[in-house]
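User: I've been trying to design a sequence by hand for this structure and keep getting stuck. Would you show me what you'd pick, starting by listing the structure so we're on the same page?

Assistant: Good idea, let's start from the same input. This is the structure you sent:
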């Protein structure tokens, strides 16, 4: 059974949206990766199609990716090249599942990507960051509440931006979010973050639904409150602003606070399965990037209890 590559890619993207419930951002990325493959196949191997490609063809595609440059003329990093190949393997898997003849995806191996260091803040650095905003202003109080909530919950920036005031239970200090892949989870708010949220919401004299609103630009009518919602980019800029003000040695981002949240829990004795749940990770393997914490704890156990260290 043969079909044009364009039609099959469209069917695959529909599958991701409807059956896999993938986010629009994920679908956009897969579309980009597969369109690059489609263009390469049509121009480099015009006598081939998705039904007749083999491992040697995929090898040629990988050579193409290794030499491919971005808009600034930089070659793609190894991990970025892998994203293109992962998308291709997922596409081939979909085709085989739907009885199309094509290359078995298990024949395509992924090389190990370069190891990346995990950035996180020590507790004193977190304290410096959260105390940087000028809380004599409503905007400064908002910024403090944002940073406190990020460190308290480990929320992704997109999850934080979507929050509405009526979704937060400050009495129970918890609320629900829908994360990546449509997975629901409960997140918990620390006492300190809860206090700053209360102070912030008490200052708010508007009826806008969003939990965090912008203070720049033209004000709008109460029924247009969605226009006042602080954007993902706005939250990222706020965190960057206070990272600079706190003069942190780490070039921290919103995601660094998520890493710091997980690191803080593990350092203080939380088990990795619980941290997996709180981060909303589908697989434990994703959470295991934080083994640098448990390794450090094991080193301390060895130092304290091994007889070879006594008297040193």
């Amino acid at each position: 059974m043969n079909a044009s590559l364009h039609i099959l890619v469209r069917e695959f993207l529909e599958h991701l949206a409807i059956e896999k419930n993938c986010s629009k951002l994920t679908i956009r990325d897969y579309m980009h990766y597969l369109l690059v493959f489609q263009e390469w196949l049509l121009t480099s191997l015009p006598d081939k199609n998705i039904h007749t490609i083999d491992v040697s063809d995929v090898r040629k595609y990988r050579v193409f990716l290794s030499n491919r440059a971005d808009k600034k003329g930089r070659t793609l990093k190894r991990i970025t090249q892998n994203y293109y190949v992962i998308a291709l393997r997922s596409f081939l898997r979909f085709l085989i599942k739907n009885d199309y003849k094509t290359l078995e995806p298990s024949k395509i191996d992924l090389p190990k990507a370069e190891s990346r260091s995990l950035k996180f803040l020590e507790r004193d650095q977190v304290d410096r960051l959260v105390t940087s905003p000028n809380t004599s202003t409503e905007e400064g109080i908002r910024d403090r509440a944002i940073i406190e909530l990020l460190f308290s919950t480990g929320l992704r920036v997109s999850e934080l931006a979507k929050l509405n005031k009526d979704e937060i239970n400050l009495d129970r200090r918890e609320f629900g979010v829908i994360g990546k892949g449509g997975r629901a989870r409960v997140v918990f708010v620390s006492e300190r973050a809860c206090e700053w949220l209360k102070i912030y919401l008490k200052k708010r004299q508007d009826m806008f639904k969003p939990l965090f609103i912008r203070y720049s630009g033209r004000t709008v009518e109460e029924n247009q409150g969605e226009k006042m919602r602080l954007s993902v980019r706005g939250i990222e800029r706020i965190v960057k602003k206070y990272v600079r003000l706190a003069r942190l040695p780490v070039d921290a981002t919103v995601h660094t606070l998520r890493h710091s949240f997980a690191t803080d829990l593990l350092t203080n004795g939380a088990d990795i399965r619980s941290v997996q749940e709180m981060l909303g990770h589908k697989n434990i393997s994703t959470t295991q990037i934080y083994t640098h914490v448990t390794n450090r704890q094991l080193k301390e156990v060895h130092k304290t209890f091994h007889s070879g260290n006594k008297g040193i």
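That's my pick for every position. To get oriented when you compare it with your attempt: The mean pLDDT is 87. The radius of gyration is 24 Å.
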